[in-house]
Amino acid sequence: MKILISVVGTTGIGKTKLAIDLARQFNTEIISCDSRQFFSEMKIGTAAPSEEELSQAKHHFIGQLSVKDYYSIGQFERDSLELLDQLFEKYDIVIMVGGSMMYEKAVIEGLNDLPEANDENQKKLEAIWKTGGIEKLQEMLKDLDPEYYENVDIHNQRRLLRAIDVIWQTGKTYSENISHDKNPRNFKTIRIGIEAPRETIYERINLRVDKMMENGLLDEAKNVDELRKSQEGRNLASLNTVGYSELFKYFDGEWNLDFAVSEIKKNSRRFAKRQLTWYRKEENIHWVNYENALQGSLFFLNELKGI
What we know:
With 307 residues, the protein is of the alpha/beta class. 53% of the residues lie in helices and 10% in strands.
C-alpha cells in the first residue's frame, strides 16, 4: 500500500520545515495543498518555501499559477490525484503539506457531489457583494451555517458565494452537504499535526509577519496592487488574501502602515483559530510537539508497520 503523509497545523507552526525533513528522510517529494502558495506573485505574504528550501526537496504546486488564473478546488483534486499516481510509481511514500483545510480534504477524501452553480443565485450574490462588500457575504454565511463559517477562508469571496449558493439550492447547510461518506483512495493517508500552546502560535505568527515585512512584503503587495486596480484584477478572489488586502487599504489611504501590519497579525491569528477549530474535530491526526516535530513524527511512523 502506498502512503501519503499529510503534514497539517496552523499557519506559522513549522509545517514546511517538517515536510522537508520528512521528504529527505524518506527520499521523496512534496505536494503543497496551500491554496495561496499556488500564485507566483505572492511568495512572501503566503510564506511560500524559499529557494533554499525548494532545493532541499522537490515541491509541487508552488508558484505554478498567476493570480490572474482561475483554479478551483476540483481542479486541484484532479491534478493532485494524477500527480500522486505518477509519484507512487517511483516512491512508496509521498509528503503533502499545507494549511488549506478543504484542499487537504479534497485529496485525502474527495469532494462531495454538490450541485452546479446556479446562475440566478450567483448574480444575486455578486450584486450583494458589490454593494455590501465581502463583510455582507460573511454575515450571511455566519447566519446560514455558523459551523462552516468557523472553518472557511472568510476572505475568499468565491468560497462564500459557492457555500451560500449551495445552501439556497439544497435547503441544507453547507456543512451538512459536505459531510457525506468519504470517497475511497488507492493509498493510505497518515496525518501528522504540529501543535503548540495557543500563545506560542500567536507569538510565532506575529514574528513571522514582522519577518515578512523585513523581507519585502510591502513591495510585493505594491506589485499586486497594480493588478488589483486594473480592470482585469477587479474581481480576482486570489487578491482577497491576508497580508495583501490589509496593505491595499494602506495604499488606498484608509489605514496607516502600522495599523495595516497589526491587522495582518490579527487576521492571521483569526485564521489560525479557525484552523484549530477545524483540526480539533478531526479524529485521525497524530499530534507532535512543535519543538521536536521530526523526532515525534519519526517515532510515531516507526511504530507503524511498513514505514
